[in-house]
């Protein structure tokens, strides 16, 4: 009988992503779909908008407000969703890099 083989060394292990956190972030994206439409974020926008959104959620969480008042979901899940959108736009070269740049 031959030995089982699977050539997956060096490939990403999605099983290492914390499933409860991922599920909650998926809920945030589902809420976003209902509010803005599916994949609205892929149209691209100024990058700093999602940085600001993530920062607002992180600051609310840091200020002892665990749940977003509109969604009643954890602010950190909203922040993660915003940063995922930001990163996706960067990786796909969507939107506008409007970060501050020093004049040279």
Largest sheet: none
Helix run count: 3
Q: N-to-C terminal Cα separation, in Å?
A: 68 Å
Structural class assignment: mainly alpha
Our Rg estimate from Cα atoms comes to 18 Å
Described by the principal axes of the CA atoms, the overall outline is extended
Strand content: under 5%
* Succession of helices and strands: HHH
Annotation, overall tally of beta strands? 0
The residue-averaged pLDDT reads 95
Poorly predicted segments: none
The portion of residues assigned to helices is 40-55%
Summarize the structure.
By secondary structure, the protein is mostly helical.
Walk me through the structure.
With 104 residues, the protein is mainly α. It has a domain at 42-96. The protein contains 3 helices and no strands. The protein has helices spanning 19-36, 47-62, 75-91. Helix 1 crosses helix 3. The longest helix is centred in the first third of the chain and has 18 residues, at 19-36. The protein is extended. The protein starts with 18 loop residues before the first helix and ends in a 13-residue tail after the last helix. 15% of the residues are buried.
Features:
single chain; 104 residues; mainly alpha; 3 helices; extended
Q: Topology, please?
A:
Blueprint: H1 19-36, H2 47-62, H3 75-91
Helix pairs in contact: 1-3, 2-3
């Amino acid at each position: 009988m031959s030995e089982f083989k699977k050539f997956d060394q060096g490939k990403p292990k999605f099983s290492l992503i914390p499933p409860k956190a991922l599920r909650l972030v998926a809920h945030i994206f589902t809420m976003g779909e209902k509010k803005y439409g599916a994949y609205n974020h892929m149209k691209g926008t100024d990058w700093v908008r999602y940085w600001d959104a993530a920062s607002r959620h992180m600051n609310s969480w840091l200020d002892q407000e665990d749940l977003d008042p509109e969604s009643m979901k954890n602010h950190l899940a909203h922040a993660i969703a915003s940063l995922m959108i930001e990163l996706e736009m960067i990786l796909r070269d969507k939107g506008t890099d409007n970060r501050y740049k020093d004049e040279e």
